[in-house]
Every structure is written in structure tokens, then in C-alpha cells.
Amino acid sequence: xxxxTGFPAGKLRFTPLPNLFFSELLPAIDDLAELKVTxxxxxxxxxxxxxxxxxxxxxxxxxxxxxxxxxxxxCEPKERLRYAxxxxxxxxxxxxxxxxxxxxxxxxxxxxxxxxxxxxxxIRRGELELEVTAIPEEVHLAAERPNIFVLYEQNIGLLTPxxxxxxxxxxxxxxxxxxxxxxxxxxxxxxxxxxYVRAILERWATEGRGKAEGxxxxxxxxxxxxxxx
Length: 229
Known about the structure:
By secondary structure, the chain is an alpha+beta fold. It has helices at residues 19-28, 32-47, 57-61, 64-69, 77-91, 114-125, 147-155, 161-173, 176-188, 194-207, 209-213, 224-227; strands at 55-56, 94-101, 104-111, 133-136.
């Protein structure tokens, strides 16, 4: 670990943070990548001038300082960035707008401040002249975590980037009520593991949910091939 040499003497530049960040937002953030990305965006936005003020995903992916800080053993920095941005948007820290120009697209992120909300609303109403087609993500300003993420953390445990990817795939593959029911069964059997939930979903997909519901559920030992660490 490289030691920090300390802040130098003399006049230093500062990036202000709202007190609410420390009293409400910081205690709620439970993922290091989300925290790093959130703080970095505060820093970037404070340095920007002009209107509207936002950061793009392309800008963040090209930021060597940020991407170096997102390196980890579990996944690539770009994947950690995507995961962190999704969490920050779902938490309500950031507002997301999809920007489309021809065949190319990018993601814009605004801080969820009074100014940010006003800007996104103007984009939604078509009141800003932009060189791109900008489509605000339809989320409530006090947005909750994506439902499948909420279900997982309430019933199984803390999310990781790899599990988040599996959950997104499951959401595309299985109906929402299947996922909810499979997690409920896992909780009732005290097998709080995603592989167990996935095994139930795979069985329903193979045998049909109606037929599978009339049978007993496998024990943890019988599902061993799915739930080994």
C-alpha cells in the first residue's frame, strides 16, 4: 500500500459537500465503489462551468484517477463503474439521462439537487436545446433500489457486482413473481444463497412451476451441486 504523504502547506483548493451527505447519504452507502464514484462526481461537477452541468459515462470511463481507484479482483473497472452508477441512481443520489446522437449513445448523470432536478425536468419537457436526443430515466426522485436488488438484500445478503449481474440476467429470464417466490422458499428453508434460489427457478423453467409446486423442495444437501462455495 502506497502511503499518503499528507496535504502540503499553503493554500489548498476544496470541494464543498452538503451536510446532508454526511448525515443521511454517507451512512446509507454500503458499497465502496458507489462511494468512490459519488465523491468523484461531486468533485467533477464542482469544477464544471456552463449549463447544464453533468458528467457522462464516457467521461468517467476515460478518467484515469477514477478508473485506477475502481480496480479490484472481482471485476473490471468499467463493470464496477456501471454497478456503482446504477446503485447511485437507484439510491437517488444521481439523476440519469440517456443521450442519443445518431447511432451513438451515452449516459449523462446529474446530481440530485434542486438545480439538477430542474434541469432534468426541462429536458423531459423538451425546453432545452441540445445537440442530442436526451431521454431522462423514468425514476422517482426519491428512487428506491431496483426491486430485484431490494429483494436480494432483504432476503439473502449484501450485493456484489457479480451477483448483481446474475440478478439482472435472472430478471430478464424469469417472471418477477417467480423470483419473489423462490427467494421466499429459500428463506423458509433457511438456505439464504443465490445458487439455491437460481436452482428453484431452473427447476420451474424445466418442469413447469405448477408441476414443481406440488412436489417437495430439495434439501440443501440435494442442491449441493448448485450451492457449493
